[in-house]
Amino acid sequence: MTDEAKKAEELLTKVKEKESPAEQEKMSKEAQKQIEQLKTKLESFRKTIVKKFPYIAAIGLIPPQASKMFEEEEETKKPEKERLIHVALIIPNEKEKEFAKVKAEAVKLVQNIKPKIWLHVYLVNEIWEMASDGKYDMVEAIGMSMPMHDKGLLGALRVASIHRTLCLRKFEKYIVSYVIAGSLTRGEATKTSDVDIFVIVDDTDVKRMSRAELRDRLRGIIYGYVMEAAEIAGVKNKLSPQIYILTEFWEGVREANPIFFTFIRDGVPLYDRGTFTPWKLLLRMGKITGTPEAIEKFLTLGEKVHEIVDRKMMDIATEDIYWSVVTPSQGALMLYGMAPPTPKETVKLMKEIFYEKEKLLEKKYIDFLEHVVIDVYKAYEHEKLKKISGKEIDELVKGTKEYIERIRKLAEEVGKRNAENTVIKMYEDILGMLGGLFGKMPESEMIEKFKSVFINSVKMPHHYLDVLHDVIKAKKNMAKMSRQEVEHIRKDAQVLIANLIEYSQRQKLAEIEQLRFSAKINDKEGEIYLIGKEVFIISDVKVPELKRIDLEKMTIIKADPSELEEALKQPKKETKLSKSIIEKIEKLIGKIELVF
Question: Are 13 and 169 in contact (CB under 8 A)?
Fold first, then answer.
């Protein structure tokens, strides 16, 4: 780990310790009392100076462990054995003419404070110059200072410094430059500003993985530290990292890419291993100008403007407008009940269903859809259309807006029709099932019958009667009902229908049970089905062979299971299993003992 990384690591550790409850408990009561007194005196100073000069960007109490470097920097002899408190006061660059006035007033205000205050007054640019000169520890100390007044600069610098330290601690050998830019370096940072940071990763000696893999792996880690840095810093500023590998960054510089030039010109290094700072100096000296090929590329870019505009206009027509009309059309067809069609099928189906069959859509909208899909998109696909004018784009945009509005109305009409069909089906299903159970009768009598058979006998919950009323009411007022109301009733009706089906099935099973008797036939478990004057016998359920007995003719023959099923479907015939019937059966098959 380099000396710079070690210093950053130590500073981060001390910041964490300073904020921990355990460390605070170690402080003596006297020390705490002195700190509170100092805070009170400094608070008075802050209020007075900020009131007089409201444009002051920040005032921060510099960490004690960083005091020595500030004293050495200003080359002012410190009085022996005198304890000093270092305070940084930062002024925006545009107020440079006010610098002397602010400093004189600030010094005057702190001269009677004890312990003695050593005031360090800086313009924002002076802090960035420290960084450009490699004095990263001083810049970081300012960022880590306890804010007495901060419009956003200290907080943004603090979170960037902590994030930088976390990244260096994890993979210092790969990072060649950690640079801040954007509103922070312009002195415009607020307490909620995004903090733009650029991290350049050395990929010149990568052997175990590809350059892209290295960048992606480090990007994940760097982004992962963003939240942690914000939590430690205790600020709302959001870090916005950009990660570049060294080789691609150098290519961008050689090609005179404006993004990289701007980054080098305005960026401020918080950490650099001799890469970014030399580039910044060379740019200032005019030594980085891009290759002849790159310069020619910039010069000829304007000449291609018509080609670029033509291509973008074709993109609007063949992508944006095309999908803007095709997608809603597919949605309307899906609402009608069809599977999502392909774009090619969409035009044909819209015409066949909504224009020709349902007569819900006017021909001009079918013509517009055909124009967009066939005359524009297909012609472009087959290279028959290579250019489109601005006037045509305007007409397409206007037509698209009208088409989308019309399809929205179409969807409402289709939805309303679907809702009406749903109501009719619910009504017919429920009333049809009740008619099957109770026989044909008027609607009002059907409701009363349902109430007496199911609700009064507690065979079904009382709210099922409400569901029945809702379905009948919906049938009468379906033109006024919304799709949401219909859907709500449909869900309740499905539950009622399921219960009616189950009841009907139980009824049929009960009828079958009355015709079926378990018996021991020649000491084996068997079954007897008595249907009218016909008897079906299974002598042994383990070897289920079905036989049919005609009691009048006293004959027994082998039967097919389908014959039994068909007999059970016939209207129920009143038949009693009398002693005489059993005796007749015994004459044909042997001893019978009924099992109850």
Answer: no
Q: What is the mean pLDDT of residues 522-537?
A: 83
Q: Full-prediction pTM beyond 0.85?
A: no
The dihedral region occupied by 459, where left means phi > 0, alpha psi between -120 and 50, and beta the remainder, is alpha
Q: How confident is the model at residue 51 (pLDDT cuts 50, 70, 90)?
A: very high
Q: Is 264 exposed, middle or buried (0-12, 13-18, 19+ CB in 10 A)?
A: buried
Q: What is the pLDDT of residues 97-129, one digit of tens each?
A: 999 999 999 999 998 888 888 999 999 999 999
Separation between Cα atoms, residue 292 and residue 285, nearest integer Å: 18
Domain that holds residue 485: 417-511
Q: Quick check: 585 and 539 in contact, CB under 8 A?
A: no
Among 511, 533, 549, the domain-final residue is 511
For residues 397 and 391, give the distance between their C-alpha atoms in angstroms, rounded to a whole number.
10
Q: Phi/psi at 517 (nearest 5 deg)?
A: -130, 135
Q: How many domains does the chain have?
A: 3
- The rounded distance, in Å, linking the Cα atoms of 313 and 318 is 9
Return d(Cα 341, Cα 198) in angstroms, integer. 47
User: Who has greater pLDDT, 272 or 76?
Assistant: 272
Rounded-to-integer distance, Cα 6 and Cα 13, Å:
11
Q: Is the pLDDT of residue 386 over 70?
A: yes
442 phi and psi, to 5 degrees? -60, 160
Q: For residues 529 and 566, is the Cβ–Cβ distance under 8 A?
A: no
